[in-house]
Structure formats: C-alpha cells, structure tokens
Amino acid sequence: MITAQPLDERDLAALQALLDEVPAPLEPLDLSALDGYLCGVLVQPRAVAESAWWPRVVDIDTRPLPARFDASALQAIVRRRHRELAEAIAARRWFDPWVFASQAEPDDDDDEDAVSAAVQPWAFGFSVALEAFATLLERDDDEVTAPLALLYRHLGIDHLEEADALQAEIEALEPPPSLEAAVEELVRATLLLADAAGLARR
After folding, report:
1. What domains appear along the chain, each with residue ranges and CATH number?
2. What is the pLDDT of residue 106?
3. Mean pLDDT by 10 residues, the chain (202 residues)
4. What letter does residue 133 receive in the DSSP assignment?
5. Contact call for residues 87 and 4 (beta carbons, < 8 A)
6. pLDDT of 103
7. Are 128 and 59 a contacting pair, CB within 8 Å?
8. Separation between Cα atoms, residue 20 and residue 176, nearest integer Å
9. What was the pLDDT predicted at 104?
10. CA angle 147, 107, 127 (to 5 degrees)
C-alpha cells in the first residue's frame, strides 16, 4: 500500500526555494544530491535516525543552522520524500530519481559525458550517505560491489580505501547508452543494495 504523498513539480519548486534560503556559509545538498543522499540513507542495514541524517541535508559538513533559522517547512518536505522513497525501496518498487538533464545540452541524452554529468549529482548524494554511514562500504562481496560500481562509475573512487574490486567492476561496465538507461541503473543499484543490506521487503 502506498501511503506517502508523492512530491509534484510545485513541491520541488518549494523545496528548491527552501534550500536556497539556507544561510551561507552553510552548503545544503542540491535537489538531485538530496534525493541520492536519502536513498543512500535508506539502504543502510540498520535504520539511520533522522537526527543523524538531517544535518547533511542543510550542510554537507554538518555545521549547525543558526538558532534564528526556522527549518520546519524544509524538514517537513524532506521527510515526505524520505517516506516516499522508503516505501518504494521497502517494496522493491520503481521510483523516479531526481535527475535533471542539462538545459544547455538538450540533445545529448546519448552522449556519454553528458549522461554522466546529469546523474553525477544524484550519485554524489548517495555516496555522501554511504561514506557517512559506512557499513556497506566496508563490505567487498559481489552483492555490494556490483551495484556500487553503477553509482561510483560517475564519481571516481580515488578517495575510497581498498577499492580495487570496485575499480575492476567499473572498468568492466559498458557505458549506459542513454540518460534513461543511466537513471534505470541508479534505481537498480539502490534496490540491489537494499537486498544486500538485508532490508525486509513488504
């Protein structure tokens, strides 16, 4: 049963406006990275409390919000997306990642560099969660390595430790033929990692 109310375009615009209001020098995740981040949080073997994952939404370095800043509206809409994704992942159901093709290159959906650039922010957000809550990254079995390769192929892995198996898996992959295929890979990787984490289906 689907109980979370999906966010529509107006909700996305409102969310973007709320993120834009986060005061400098804080650096909130952008929409695409936020979406990937929430998915990375949700595939952890143990549930991550909101108090642990929320600070990176409003600042990647987890610097605190000013006491005067009211983040309640922002937090409420992020919770809605978190719930929506949680239901989809628990049911191993398709969801639409927030991936936005470049407006400057509308005809490059089949260009390898343009495709990777479009999905990179989402994959980056996912990696932020994996590295903040590192249980899955500590495993090197095929059940984890294969889906991780679908994500990290767009990021590079120079900063990861003991990543030889992941690098080999990435090098064996064919480039996604289109943006649509790359987005499908993001969903597939998320659901495979949920399986690898032993998350119960419902």
Report:
1. 9-196 (1.20.120.740)
2. 43
3. 81 97 97 98 96 98 96 97 97 96 52 89 96 84 92 84 83 92 97 92 80
4. S
5. yes
6. 40
7. no
8. 32
9. 39
10. 25
Angstrom distance (rounded) from CA 122 to CA 199? 22
Question: Rounded to whole angstroms, how far apart are CA atoms 99 and 68?
Answer: 32
CA distance 145 to 143: 6
Lookup result for tokens 């993120």: 19
CA distance 54 to 62: 9
What pLDDT is recorded for position 24? 95
Q: Which of 130, 131, 174, 179 is nearest to 150 (CA)?
A: 174
The tokens for 106 are 């509308």
Q: Report yes or no: 34 and 98 within 8 Å, Cβ to Cβ.
A: yes
Question: Among all chains, which residue has been given the structure tokens 């495993």?
Answer: 139
Cβ contacts of residue 110 below 8 Å, gap of 6+? 177, 178, 179
Cβ–Cβ under 8 Å, residues 81 and 7: yes
d(CA 115, CA 5): 29
DSSP state of 103: T
pLDDT at 139: 78
Residue 111 CB partners (closer than 8 Å, separation 6+): 105
- Alpha carbon distance 160, 147 (integer Å): 16
pTM: 0.93
Joined together, the tokens standing for residue 167 give 């690098």
| Tokens linked to 151 | 């994500």
Q: How many residues does the chain have?
A: 202
